[in-house]
Amino acid sequence: MVDLAGALSPPNAALERTLAKIHSLGLDSHLLDLETQGFTVVRGALSQEQVARARTAILARVERMTGRRLDLDTASAADFSGMQYIPYLLFDDDVFTELMMAPSTLALVTYLLGESCQLSSMGCHFRGPGGAPLLLHCDNTNGAPAPFSPSAFVANVNFALTPYSRETGALIMAPGSHRHCRQPSGGENFSVDGMSLGEAMARAPSGALDGTPWQDPPNTVPMLLEPGDAVVFHGNTWHGGLRREVPGLRINLSAFFCRQFVQTQERRGDTRTEAEIARRGNDRRFATLLGAKQPYGWQDEGPDYALFDTMPRGLFD
């Protein structure tokens, strides 16, 4: 006789492993933040050596892209204006796979998404002076209709690689917004002279908004961070970015994760992925983050049925 009750009950072992890891790292209080606020700040998640290596690698990518040298402290809007997303950094430097595996942040992501989660994308929201703020939004943008599941399907780690303040273009968060299970409306977002960001940008010529005093979205707080700090947040949590008001550059690293059944933003499975997994000695967790347990996406070879035995059975695995 089949034990239906046992088959339908989610396993507790994965939850116990996850909580034990969080406890061993001294992160217990962060779970309360994640549950009540939808985000938590991890101070000193990275070493200063890791910060410097990641920052240097990102600057090198942007300088290749723009064809000009950029100074962290003095860059003007003429050098780099506003924000641009710099994608697919994982294979640019060894430091990025290190940061994907950073113990404190990965433990909290595991609490949100389970042991079978994957890296969806890794990029930088590179910001110079001027431009417009980044609209308040949540990352549950994978086509899921509202209301969203209260259980996280995606989660983000925002590593600060330069100081975050209001003037330098900090990340902002809306505490408790993950409970809304929807995207914010226009009236809950940035505004200027009673207009939404979209309306203001549509009416103004290019560059005319650089000096405009924006009103922050209601019930949001700026993340005041030092290089090496990180914000870990639930995929439903509303967040955005302030405009940089002073010379210089704000550099972050966004490590975006998803549950196994969610389509990753970046494509996996090329020869670099296989080489990285092999170089890591086929570390099981590292391989899982890069999609090694994903049973879908087959071609002529058909499905690998052994992978179906490793699929998650509950919230934690």
CATH architecture: Sandwich
> How much strand?
15-25%
CATH superfamily: q2cbj1_9rhob like domain
Order of helices and strands: HHHEHEHHEEEEEEHEEEEHHH
Q: What value does the Rg take, in angstroms?
A: 20 Å
Spatial strand sequence of the major β-sheet: 1-10-5-12-3-2
The beta-strand count equals 12
> How many discrete domains?
1
End-to-end Cα distance: 25 Å
- Helical stretch tally: 10
Largest sheet, described in full?
Answer: 6 strands, antiparallel
CATH topology (fold) name: Jelly Rolls
Q: How would you state the average pLDDT, rounded? A: 91
Give the CATH level 1 class: Mainly Beta
SS-based structural class?
alpha+beta
Q: Helical percent range?
A: 25-40%
Low-confidence segments: 1-9
What's the shape?
A: globular
Structure, described:
This protein is of the alpha+beta class. It has a single domain, classed as Sandwich (Jelly Rolls). It is built from ten helices and twelve strands. It has helices spanning 4-8, 13-24, 28-36, 48-66, 94-100, 103-113, 197-203, 271-279, 284-289, 305-308, and strands spanning 39-42, 83-86, 118-127, 134-137, 154-160, 171-173, 191-192, 195-196, 221-222, 230-234, 239-241, 252-258. The strands form three sheets. Strands 1-10-5-12-3-2 form a six-stranded antiparallel sheet. A four-stranded antiparallel sheet has the order 4-11-6-9, with no helix packed on it. The chain has a two-stranded antiparallel ribbon with strand order 7-8. Strand 7 (191-192) and strand 8 (195-196) form a beta hairpin. Helix 2 runs antiparallel to helix 6 (103-113). Mean pLDDT is 91; it is low at 1-9.
